[in-house]
Specification:
The chain is of the alpha/beta class. 46% of the residues lie in helices and 18% in strands.
């Protein structure tokens, strides 16, 4: 597979000012020479790493159909460490499709999802953590996530993981030398070995704990807006989005199904859900909307429970408080722009120390305070390490590393011979090797790269 030359569109499909077609492999340069003619007729070869202006032609009749820049990156100084050609032209789907057809006709095949990055990994340009970071960077919702992904793409996490693995391998080598060649005089005590194991675990544990924070950065924090009908849920939804996404009327029950949109607060992506008002209903559509809202509350990272300051409190308000009491919840008193009829003190006694705030969604009063409260309550900034992991695969492997190291430490402390300890320590070293891809597992590679877009 890696011997074949591949081609794909590297910019998003659709019309645009610019489109890029990328080729990688042994035939990339020869294919480019067939379908591209420089405007400078004296230019016989395409120089490395220097964009050349010219025309894309159909070799069968010599007719040009597009003006383009072609850049040649010879192996090994390219993204894939193979010969790479990039054709930059107008973002016309018809033109781009024709270029790809010509590339296939003259020796390339259409690339699979993530195949360019897979080749970069297989050819040793990047490791598996860096490859995952490429996809995370492409799909980043916020700058915080993009910065973490870029740091991993630069190799910062990989260097630390490789360093830990090298320490383990050195430790294992020293122990094996003591066992096999006692006359050499290599000395290392059990307490020194155990301390080295615990030093490695000190780095591993915060990384594992960082995943919960990382997954919220990557996928977004789910926040459900709920409350009785007509308390202003849709108005708050629109106000936080700064656009009229939900229909707002003075009549209860306008929202029958949930709506969802993303917003960014202090570098964190939040997914807001505007739900149907929770009340008894016999209408099948309203019943389904209410049930969906309840399921969303169960799955949410945070809940905004709204009260209407301009209406008297009711038994339904108290029931709603009980329903969300075990959730991560902020109680929001809406419509502070209207005369107050609710007995807020009764509500505050019921919520008993939970965070709360008065707002006016209609007049957008205290919205910035609410955003800060959402950021503080629903995703506390508890980063305990410089590195944040975003991948479940990485978390699972780190947990296996920890489990093996804990087992190795326990065997040492209980007086078992070094052979038993070494077996567990080797497992940890292998799991660290899987993290960066030094130890390759085909099923894992397929799972990772199939999630990439074609052309990357």
């Amino acid at each position: 597979m890696i011997e074949e030359t591949i081609i794909a569109l590297s910019t998003p499909p659709g019309r645009g000012g610019l489109g890029i077609v990328r080729l990688s492999g042994k035939k990339a340069y020869s294919i480019a020479k067939k379908i591209f003619k420089p405007k400078n007729n004296s230019l016989k070869e395409i120089p490395p790493r220097c964009p050349v202006l010219g025309r894309i032609i159909n070799p069968e009749n010599g007719e040009p159909f597009e003006e383009a820049f072609v850049t040649y990156f010879p192996a090994p100084n390219s993204y894939t460490r193979e010969d790479v050609i990039e054709i930059s032209c107008h973002g016309s789907p018809v033109v781009l499709e024709e270029i790809i057809k010509l590339g296939i006709k003259y020796g390339a095949r259409l690339a699979k999802p993530g195949e360019f990055t897979l080749r970069a990994y297989l050819n040793g340009r990047i490791d598996l953590i860096q490859a995952e970071a490429v996809n995370d960077l492409i799909n980043a919702w916020t700058m915080d996530q993009a910065k973490i992904s870029f740091s991993q793409l630069e190799g910062n996490l990989s260097k630390k993981i490789n360093n830990l693995r090298e320490k383990l391998i050195t430790l294992l080598s020293n122990i094996e030398a003591i066992i096999e060649f006692p006359e050499e005089g290599v000395e290392i005590s059990r307490s020194e070995i155990n301390q080295e194991i615990k030093n490695i675990m000190k780095f591993i544990q915060p990384l594992i704990e960082s995943f919960d924070y990382g997954v919220k950065l990557k996928e977004g924090v789910k926040v459900v807006i709920t409350g009785k009908p007509n308390v202003g849920k849709s108005s708050l939804f629109n106000a936080l989005l700064q656009r009229e996404r939900a229909i707002v009327t003075p009549y209860p029950g306008t929202t029958r199904d949930y709506l969802q949109e993303r917003i960014t607060i202090d570098g964190i992506s939040f997914i807001l859900f505007d739900t149907a008002g929770i009340e008894d209903s016999t209408h099948p559509i309203e019943v389904e909307g209410i049930q969906r809202g309840r399921r969303l509350i169960d799955e949410a990272d945070g809940v905004l429970l709204l009260f209407d300051l301009s209406e008297k409190e009711s038994e339904e308000d108290f029931q709603l408080i009980e329903k969300v009491r075990d959730k991560n919840v902020i109680f929001v008193f809406n419509k502070m722009d209207l005369p107050v009829k609710i007995d807020k003190e009764i509500i505050l006694k019921k919520i008993n120390g939970y965070p709360w705030l008065e707002i006016s969604a209609k007049e957008e009063r205290n919205l910035e305070k609410l955003k800060k409260l959402i950021r503080k309550i629903f995703i506390p900034d508890e980063k305990k390490t410089e590195e944040i992991i975003l991948s479940l695969r990485q978390k699972i492997l780190l947990e296996k590393v920890k489990e093996s190291l804990v087992g190795a430490s326990k065997l040492l402390e209980e007086g078992y011979s070094e052979e038993y300890f070494m077996e567990e320590a080797r497992k940890a070293a292998d799991y660290l090797g899987e993290l960066t891809g030094k130890i390759k597992i085909d099923e894992i590679l397929n799972e990772i790269f199939n999630n990439f877009c074609i052309g990357k």
